[in-house]
Structures are given as C-alpha cells and as structure tokens.
Amino acid sequence: MQKFILILVVLSLSIVSCSKKKAFQLDTPISLAMGESASCTNCAEKMSISFTNIMEDSRCPTGTNCVWEGKAVIRLAVNMGKIQTIELMVKGNNKQGNTKSYRGYDFTFQTLSPYPKYGEEIKTEDIRFTVLVQKQRNRGKV
After folding, report:
1. Position with higher pLDDT, 12 vs 63
2. First and final CA of the chain: distance in angstroms?
3. Which of 42, 78, 109, 122 could be a cystine partner for 88, CB 3.0 to 4.6 Å?
4. pLDDT digits (tens, 9 = 90+) for 93-139
5. Beta strands 48-57 and 30-33: pairing type?
6. Residue 120: how many CB atoms within 10 A of its CB?
7. How far apart are CA 121 and CA 99, in angstroms?
8. How far apart are alpha carbons 112 and 131 in whole angstroms?
C-alpha cells in the first residue's frame, strides 16, 4: 500500500511539474519566475531555458541617492542536450542588459522586476526575469 501511495505521489508531482513548463519563441521576449523553465517552439535544436538564480542585485533603489548605479546579475541555465550556465547582467536602471552567446544563439538580458524600492522587501515569488533569445546572425568579416 505504501508503494502504491508513493507511486501515486510521484506521478502527481510529475504531472504538475510538466504543466508548469512554459514555451517561448525566438525573437520574442520571455518572462520567467525564479526556478521556472520554458522550451523553445521554433528553434532548430531542442532547447529549454531556466531562470535559476540571482547572483547579485545591487541596483540603486528608487527613493535613494547612490554613488554607484549598481547592477543585477542572474544565472540562466540553457539545456540543449547538455546544460550550460550563462550569467547575464544589467547595470542600474538600464532598459537592456548584456548579451551572451551559446551554440549559435544570443541571450539578451531584458529586465529584472520588480525594481528595488527603498524600504520595501521583494518576495522571491514576485521576481520576474525577461530574456530575449535570438539565432545569431551571420557576421561578415570586416
């Protein structure tokens, strides 16, 4: 009986975890919650991405004056048969962060929200990271 209950729990958890998986398309920003994954629907290769961690968020909170604008650094896991971790960054309140390339795709930091406000705590479940995934364009030699 205990084995049956254990199997039932495992099956239920796997169904729930499958239903939480999102989909994204190239050239369209995708917003992910912490720990959330999404699979690419129009990539040539099978690819999924996961927002795994915030490595740093030292952005200057609204309602304060800072000497340094700060930065936010997140960790994105890219799974294309093998998992590769990519760290992306945005400085201060810039509209767009940096871009990192992996296996022919560009991953561009779009936003990390909510933006910090003085005296307010941000709950983990409220955090959203938006990334833009694009196929690398052929770059001609100069």
Report:
1. 63
2. 70
3. 109
4. 877 789 999 999 999 999 999 999 999 999 999 999 999 999 998 65
5. unpaired
6. 10
7. 28
8. 9
CB-count burial class (<10 Å; 0-12, 13-18, 19+) for 125: exposed
Q: How far apart are CA 130 and CA 90, in angstroms?
A: 12
pLDDT digits (tens, 9 = 90+) for 13-61: 444 444 457 999 999 999 999 999 999 999 999 999 999 999 999 999 9
Do residues 29 and 132 make contact, with C-beta atoms less than 8 angstroms apart?
Answer: yes
Q: How far, in Å, CA of 84 to CA of 135, rounded?
A: 17
Q: Is the dihedral of CA 128, 130, 80, 39 positive or negative?
A: positive
Pairing between β-strand 37-40 and β-strand 22-24 as defined by DSSP bridges: parallel
For residue 52, give Cα distances in angstroms to 35, 55, 85, 87, 130. 5, 10, 9, 10, 13
Q: How many CA atoms lie within 13 Å of 115's alpha carbon, on the beta-carbon side?
A: 17
